Amino acid sequence: MFMATVACPVQAQEIRLNVLKSDELALRRMVVFKKSGDKISSFVKIDSFEPVSGIFVMEDATGEMVSIPTSEIQKIEFEQTVRRQNPVAQEAHWEIKATAGAGLRYKLSRGALRVESGELVLPASSPSTSVPGPTVPSPEPSSREPGSRITAFKVSEARSLTVDGASESFFVEVQAVTYTHETFSGSGSSGLSGTRK
Q1: Could you read off the pLDDT of 18-65 as tens digits, one per residue?
Q2: Going by C-beta distance under 8 Å and a sequence separation of 6 or more, which residues neighbour residue 65?
Q3: 83, 112, 92: which is closest to 180 by C-alpha?
Q4: Across the strands, what pairs with 80?
Q5: Which among 158, 153, 167 is positioned nearest to 104, based on CA atoms?
Q6: Rounded CA gap, 195 and 67, in Å?
Q7: How far apart are the C-alpha atoms of 171 and 169, rounded to whole Å?
Q8: Contacts of 62 (CB under 8 A, 6+ apart)
Q9: In sequence order, which residues have a C-beta less than 8 Å from that of residue 42 and are 6 or more positions away?
Q10: Cα separation of 3 and 40, whole Å?
Q11: How far apart are CA 180 and CA 2, in angstroms?
């Protein structure tokens, strides 16, 4: 059975956002933009955040832990790429698509941000403003095959974390994304068209 790990509020008091753990829906990565102009894309995990010192500890692709103070960070961008089926896989053909919706931009103090198990954790009470979603084109005629099965998953995806230099507070932009996973009953293997956001 197809299962998905979704990032959504699990309690009324907090919002948990999966930023780097890939799952059945998407591959995830992040890019750190430093105030010096350096861009780092080798991190595979945010291990922890210390609010008192304002230091992020991140793990790079070699397993080394790197400490970066918020005073050196301009922005962290989070990217998601939908999974694609291996064309030689001996299984029913499936396809995943992602549709981005509207978002929210949360503002929180340095002491309000937590990192647990690779997730950003925000207080649900954090002030937020709406961020318009992308313009959605007119729907294309459905290409759904008879007998195919579609499952939809609504996920809150972190898009970016920006450091407000003056106060060292954070702006965290979150976007609603609907992933659709379609399994085709036929044997056709064409049309592997994953969508990158």
Answers
A1: 999 888 899 999 999 999 999 999 999 999 999 999 999 999 999 999
A2: 47, 57, 58, 59
A3: 83
A4: 28
A5: 158
A6: 34
A7: 7
A8: none
A9: 60, 61
A10: 32
A11: 12
- Distant-in-sequence, close-in-space partners of 3: CB < 8 Å, separation ≥ 6: 24
Q: What is residue 179's three-state secondary structure?
A: strand
Sole residue written with tokens 């049309």:
191
SS3 at position 110:
helix
In 165-196, DSSP assigns E strands to 169-183
Distance between CA atoms of residues 181 and 82, nearest Å: 10
Output the six-digit token pair for 96. Answer: 């995943």
CA 96 to centroid of chain Cα atoms = 15
What is the value of pTM for the model shown? 0.79
Backbone φ and ψ for 116, nearest 5 degrees, come out as: -135, 125
Closest CA to 73 of 159, 168, 158, 157: 168
Phi, psi (deg, nearest 5) at residue 26:
-150, 155
Spatial neighbors of 82 by CB under 8 A, at least 6 apart, are: 25, 26, 27, 96, 97, 98, 179, 194, 195, 196, 197
